[in-house]
Amino acid sequence: MAHAGRIALAVALAASLVAGYRWSLGPRLRLGPAVDLRWRAPATCVEVYRLRIDEDFRDPGVAVFLGREEAHETWLAAFEGVDLERRRGGEPEHVRALMIPAAALDGLDQPQSQPQPQSQPQPQPEGEAEDPARFRDAWWSPSAVGPAAPDFACRRHTWDPFEDLLALGWPRLPAAPVRPGQSWTGARVEGRCHETVCLDADGRFAHDPQQPCRARPWSETLAAVDPATQIATVRGEWRDGHDPADPQIGILTSRTLELHAGRPLRAQLQVEQRWSGVTRTLTLEALDGCRGRPGEAAEGGEAPDEHTRRQIEAIRARLDAGPRAGRASSPRAP
To answer: Beta-carbon neighbour count of residue 188 at 10 Å?
Structure first.
């Protein structure tokens, strides 16, 4: 009888353990299949993006303090793969790029007459406006793209729209497949972003030798994957560590990114710089049809309007006529 009781107790205990194990795995099982997120460098199809930068000042005193008005800018960027026949897996890939204010493309239907080598800039004729086109080099790897602004998360103003563009649209991706709902550590946040970590509520440095002023990295999460289009939504956030309930101090930064076929389709970021009273909103949108944009081939799919189409043609022509010398500086193991 005692033996039967021990067997019943063992069976009950085993059933309890199995139930607990299944309960602990339940959320993980509900995450869905793992997704391999990785960036793919542009190739022969020149990819074109629009970047919109908008600032909102908390009150009129912010403009007086900063000595400037709110910034509202629109840029276009184009990317083309270089040395495609020499690309080898595991090494950063070289990409040519051009970034130019959108307004500068209006009315441009023809490329420059002759490409100018990057190492031999031509003298600017007296009285002629400076060419706003910025030819750049970039590097691509499966997990990271650069050069990306290291202090992008905390800035109250855009100093280099090209590096901000790359930081916005191409965050660091995980090395291993992830499931919807899972998170990973994103890119490091550097530069002046370290400074506000040690500020007190009055804006004074309260440095603790035991706790260095070190900004935390980005936190990234795969929020969802659309089963019909395979568009993945990634949400990122960064804070400087201060109380988010206080509207006067701290920096709160959040990004929502949609990516498909190894490239961003849309991204929007908001930097709430409470110390200075500036809220920055950056919006990125892919304009071209490279890599088979989901939905465009289907009935009712959106196509670029005539003005956007002409801008795409103009920036591609400028990039084709631009310098081809130079190579992007890239890390050995991004």
So the answer is: 14
What does the alpha-carbon distance between residue 140 and residue 82 come to, in Å, rounded to a whole number? 11
User: How do the domains of the chain map onto residue ranges?
Assistant: 34-111+129-287+299-321
d(CA 2, CA 222): 53
Residue 308 CA from chain centroid, whole number:
22
Cα 34 from chain centre: 22
What is the three-class DSSP state of 177? Answer: coil
**Rounded-to-integer distance, Cα 333 and Cα 144, Å:** 10
Among 239, 260, 233, which Cα is nearest to 251's? 239
Q: Which sign does the torsion angle of CA 171, 177, 179, 183 carry?
A: negative
Prior bond of 147 cis (ω within 30°): yes
43-91 pLDDT, tens per residue?
A: 989 999 999 999 999 989 888 988 889 889 999 999 999 876 666 666 7
Q: Using one digit for the tens of pLDDT, what is the confidence trace for 187-226?
A: 999 887 877 777 766 666 666 666 677 888 999 999 999 9
| CA 237 – CA 223 distance, rounded (Å) | 12
What separation in angstroms does the CA of 47 have from each of 80, 92, 288? Answer: 7, 18, 6
Q: What share of the chain is helix, strand, coil (3-state, %, to 5)?
A: 20, 30, 50
Pairing of strands 134-140, 93-101: antiparallel
Paired tokens of 190: 């550097």
